[in-house]
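so im writing up the methods section and need the UPF0223 family protein record in one place, dumping it here so i stop losing it
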Amino acid sequence: MEEYSYPIDVDWTTDEIIDVVAFFEAIEKAYDEGIVASELKGKYHNFKTVVPGKAEEKTIFREFKSNSGLESYPAVKLLKDADDNDVIRI
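--- predicted struct ---
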């Protein structure tokens, strides 16, 4: 895995930062080798507790893309129709 600068809000707690970084690491995994849908769902759920709003989510996704070149939305979109055991691969 590459080392990227992750989008972080200075107002987030340490646990919130860990949840956001874990989600973006899961997105990287979806690109690199694939990730089981249930794992990505859990990380996305935790991410959404930190970033509940769609507008803020889009801003953070854009920032991550500009840092990494990786799109988060396609992986999240695949989750909608995925069974827990499916492998999400971008």
